[in-house]
């Protein structure tokens, strides 16, 4: 996301006190009123939290804090899909390496075609540059456990470039997402979106 960002300016307005969501109740469908609405350089964005419920009620749902152009909301799946569970028998461990950071190491033989890892994004947002309050609101919309997982991830951006930890973590780790694969939005409304998952963002072989 970081290399493809475009500035949207710093003038913004928000519905809600102090720029934070008025509610953090997650929903199972993208329909309904947003937690807050931001207007930046003439373009509107809705902030809301989605919840992917697990098939087993004993498992925790996967909350996702989203900042999305409201024109995209009708194209999101409704109802939302269920949270996919990670493999019951993990085939790898995350271990430190001498000079390449953390690495994934196989702990057993992995058959061809086996599912290795499943994760859902904690944040979904455009790659544009937003005011600091937007990133703070995105992080605040997550449950505390999920938010802590996010802010504890690698952040290679200095505070001069990214004043908030949330923005620094996003620009260090986010992967590109395609929210309008059929191109139903006009060219002037299309943007690059990114998603930041909680544990493993990039796996390089």
UniProtKB/TrEMBL annotation:
**Low complexity bias spans:** 19-37
Q: Which region ranges are annotated with the description Disordered? A: 1-41
- Report which superkingdom the organism of origin falls in: Eukaryota
Which part of the chain is the SET domain? 90-205
For this protein, the record's SUPFAM superfamilies field holds: SET domain
State the name under which the record lists this protein.
SET domain-containing protein
Whose protein is this, by species? Agrocybe chaxingu
